[in-house]
Amino acid sequence: MSDSTHDDHDTKPTGLKRWLFTTNHKDIGTLYLVTSLIMFFVGGSMAMMIRLELFQPGLQFIDPQFFNSLVTVHALVMVFGAVMPAFVGLANWMIPMMIGAPDMALPRLNNWSFWLLPFAFTLLILTFFLPGGAPAGGWTLYPPLVLQTGDSFPFLVFAVHLLGASSIMGAINIIVTIMNMRAPGMTLMKMPMFVWTWLITAYLLIAVMPVLAGAVTMLLTDRFFGTSFFNAAGGGDPVLFQHVFWFFGHPEVYIMILPSFGVISQIVPAFSRKPLFGFSSMVYATASIAFLSFIVWAHHMFTTGMPIAGQLYFMLGTMLIAIPTGVKIFNWLATMWKGELTFETPMLFAIGFILMFAIGGFSGLMMAIVPVDYQYHDTYFIVAHFHYTLVPGSVFALMGAAYYWLPKWTGYYYNEKIGQWHFWTSAVFVNVLFFPQHFLGLAGMPRRIPDYPTQFADFNMVSSIGGFLFGASQLLFVWAVISSVKGKQKAPAKAWEGAEGLEWTLPSPAPYHSFNTPPKVD
Amino acid sequence: MAHADNSYYIPHGSHWPLTGSIGLFGIMIGASIWLNGSGIGPLVLSIGFAVLLFMIFGWFRLVINESEGGQYNSEVDTSFRMGMGWFIFSEVMFFAAFFGALFYARGIAVPWLGGDSNNFFTNELLWNNFTATWPTNGPDDLGGKFETLGPWGIPALNTAILLTSGITLTIAHHALQKGSRGILSMFLAATFILGFIFMGFQAYEYIHAYQELNLTMESGIYGSTFFLLTGFHGLHVTIGATMLVVIWLRCLRGHFKPDHHFAFEAVAWYWHFVDVVWLFLFIFVYWL
Ligand SMILES: [Cu+2]
Fold first, then answer.
1. Cα(A124)–Cα(B32) distance, integer angstroms
2. Active-site residue flag, A246
3. Which 204-243 residues of chain B touch chain A by CB within 8 A?
4. Tens digits of per-residue pLDDT, A109-125?
5. Model-level ipTM above the cut of 0.85
6. What is the domain class of A20-505 according to CATH?
7. Could you tell me which CATH class the domain B9-71 is placed in?
8. What angle separates helix B181-211 from helix B154-178, to the nearest 10 degrees?
9. Are B270 and B87 in contact, with CB atoms under 8 Å apart?
10. Topology (CATH) of B75-287
11. Whole-model pTM?
């Protein structure tokens, strides 16, 4: 084996083996991105079923147990199947090119971190066909409820283990690539912001995914081996699970948003034709957000009964996060200030992100206030909040990133008209979908319930209509991607006039191995 | 095919990652259906393990051959080192989850069941007569009366054994750097022998706990934290000692150079990590 050729020249293996055994960062990036798009539609179709049932009060289409399974698996699929792999896919494709490296530092590990995912999703989706149905206790897996899951319970736990292992391996690879593979002259403070945000995200992943693995392991032993971690009769405490889970869970939300910040920090300067305003403050803001994310977790648990000192601490700590986040928003606005702005699709998604992520950020601040959170807890207000941060937040950033880098990936521009339609339909319908949910929550509609009193009927119907139309508009994205893959209009190396960075010095499409010898950075 | 240090190295494609995923998938399907009461669970589980072992064997053999063939430049070496360091950090966080559970139970959950903080009525109405103590198996006396293993018998001896193994491993490392191969293989063997002695004592203690002390995983929160913390640690000692054996066999075959021995160092870091975890276990699980 040792004398066979290793592909450090531009040879490309072909056929199925290329995808199964690949060590190439672009191939693996493509696998991640395509998988996440498929999972986006899988999770999206579950969301459509949820909105269909909630279209009118009463139980019309699905039984409550199945509804709860849909809510649970929709969340797991979207978080672990759509958003996280999409960002890892972007990291794979872009980071080596952005830092002047030939590939990721540990290419075979890279292959493994992707090829765990299809098996994990198989375990997860399989649960729908097992006795007792798919997990229905919510994606947060709270005991004792989750311990009542049927035969799917161990499948759920092991799927989480596999997803965690994949994330940890991917994160290790990203950190090592960034720390060890930068071209000479590419100092840390010269790295593109997308690389910076991913470096910090990868650190968060390695720190918290093992904690989630520990938490679900304790669930498994409580269920099958008689331990009492979450059983008060044995001296344990169900609330302990919530602490351990949210020690993972709060950093997890930043794992899904920090790379988005990175993407926006690439797109806004490119279409403002100005360098990013306040680069070093962006770096410090990202690092502070990451640090704070470890010490605020119990803001998810204000209603579980906590000493007043704990509530005050977690309230104030959470509010502090608004400061570095605000720094970022102001830096993006200052980047646009007096720039030569043009509004191609990536820029539209970036501006949409800034406006609508801010809405999600502000509703987050509202929920940080303990006495008010007593009112909001487990209502649709929470659902509206985190969907604003995740859909016009993370997902818009992902869409923007795809439009921004598609010409680099395929060598052809996407159809700009389709891209514009995709943005405007998404931006309008996402608000029709989620904005009324704030009102529903404030009026007291609980989350994870398939039926509701007639007083909530109007806003639910509006929300469902928005949901169906938002879901349908995502098909435009597929159209846009196909238009770029089948491409008519060839893209030059520097596909966008104002784009800066090493990735734009490579031809479009980028060669199979990015840089065979280190580029010069000054 | 040696590589100049200023050009990059990319390994060729490999089926081992996918094979590993298939193995893990088999293990997880097998374990799941076994836990759900299916008779073929153990069979599927064993097949999964066999595939995983085949992968571990094959993948490491490939990498060892590539390394001994001189294909890895210093950049690859650094990548491996960083990767191993971050992997150990992820392991630290895994143990942190269980230590967190232990501290939470001792500092918060059990005192609150006893009426501490603002939980007077919890104790009065739900768990009357329960006084918070440690160790405990909870207000319902789950698993029945039990005794604990004191720190100053075998656990203290095991502490000495692991600390000594850390020293013998360091001596072996210095010998490797100086090129004294005889001392290297002798002290490396001493290290894993000490590791296996440690595991022998742990096994003896577990049997003692189950048969004579009635201390089991079902002994409430004490049994839960005790067995999961020491159990996962024991699993890591077993993995670490096995890796030491592999490194020892490689040393006997003349692998490693005084300035080029990443695998040796990676296993040494892992062993020291396992050692440090044990110190925390000794202090917080057995002693305090
Ligand atoms: Cu949070």
1. 12
2. no
3. 216-218, 220-225, 227-228
4. 999 999 999 999 999 99
5. yes
6. mainly alpha
7. mainly alpha
8. 160
9. no
10. Four Helix Bundle (Hemerythrin (Met), subunit A) (1.20.120)
11. 0.95
